[in-house]
Request: fold
Amino acid sequence: MTTRLMIIVGSVRPGRVGLPIATWAKNRAEAHGEIEVDWVDLAELALPFMDEPNHPRMRQYTKPHTIAWSERVALADAVLLVTPEYNHSFSPALKNALDFLNTEWWRKPVGFVSYGGVSAGTRGVVALTTTTSAFGMVKVGANVEINFPQKMLVDGVFTPGEKEEALIEKELGELVELSELLKPSRLKG
Reply:
């Protein structure tokens, strides 16, 4: 059985290091064998600042961009958020993309590939964990945390170490496993 994994690039900043990191995660997911990737670059998705008149829980969307986003997220079995840390939190573009919807996130496993300075983005993940758990998402145990990722770029390509390679494999396995376990709950929700 194939798991539909949505990988979301959580930064829209020009020159962002998150894009090569997310590309690496995408390549690892595609090589996994049990994963079909839905690649979401928030810079390309270009959602406006939340502009729906109704609460997302009602799913009474009025804008074509929200309807398309809702349909896309609803098809995902699991989510991998590639996220920077911004001032002890996460990016406003990622918060906006998450907040556009509500029930579409229900009981989907979520993993994180975080990056930043000394903390490797972990404070951003702590803030994200509160948000994702409010949607009923279930966090996997393994997460990739990358300190000073610019040092791991070679000609614009992210070149991880053994630790990152081992963690992404563990994380992808957990996303697949948890997706299957949570599927009955998602169908009821």
